[in-house]
Amino acid sequence: MPEPAKYTVDDDSCIACGLCHVRAPENIEMDEEAMTAHVVRQPANDEEEDACHEAADYCPTGGLNSAKPETTNG
Ligand code: SF4
Predict the structure, then answer these.
(1) Do residues 39 and 9 lie in contact, with contact meaning Cβ atoms separated by under 8 Å?
(2) Each residue of 16-57: pLDDT tens digit?
(3) Could you tell me the distance, in angstroms and rounded to a whole number, from the CA of residue 74 to the centre of ligand 1?
(4) What does the longest C-alpha to C-alpha distance in the chain come to?
(5) Atom of ligand 1 nearest to the CA of 15
(6) Which atom of ligand 1 is the closest one to the Cα of 17?
(7) Which are the contacts of 41, defined by CB distance < 8 A and separation ≥ 6?
(8) Whose alpha carbon is nearest atom 2 of ligand 1?
(9) Mapping DSSP to helix (H, G, I), strand (E, B) and coil, where does residue 39 land?
């Protein structure tokens, strides 16, 4: 089974709109003071992976990023 993507928030791009927290409340929380979102837990199951993937798609600024783990060919 492939490893799930790892999610991160780019503080400089995030405008704290809250969409990602609404979509993936188990994984992403808002930091009202810092005006940014934080990934508090990487997705632990398919449901959370889907939620985080959608949250990254919905993010209006591209501030929520997913990175697939490095794979080696050969
Ligand atoms: S959806 Fe994007 S811009 Fe909005 S709070 Fe989340 S990371 Fe920030």
Answers:
(1) yes
(2) 999 999 999 999 999 999 999 999 999 999 999 999 999 999
(3) 37
(4) 47
(5) 3
(6) 4
(7) 26, 27, 48
(8) 59
(9) strand
